Amino acid sequence: MHAPETTLQIYHRSFKIPLETYINTVSDFLDPWEERAYQYVVQQSLAATHDRGLVGMVRQEKDENYVYLDAAIRYTISGYGREKGPLIMDGGKGQRAINCEKGRSMG
User: Fold this and answer.
1) What are 40's strand-pairing partners?
2) Which of 8, 1, 25, 18 minimizes the C-alpha distance to 72?
């Protein structure tokens, strides 16, 4: 008997984070501008909203006030097409500002 195949559905989510908040959140990283740091910030945001997505690749842009992250978030889909992922998804709402220090996201 074969194990059921796992299908992943991928969503792109954008985050707008105040630069100071970002730097404080990734203070344990030697290089705050590496992808692992970006993934950590996104994972913290997902955890704060009880979102069970798996963080994939994350792109970053920044200006003097904000860090902008574009993340690929993967969700498993069962063999019957039923989502096993989050209860809440962006649904194309665009960028969200997050406050990682308090562990919450702000829309």
Assistant:
1) none
2) 8
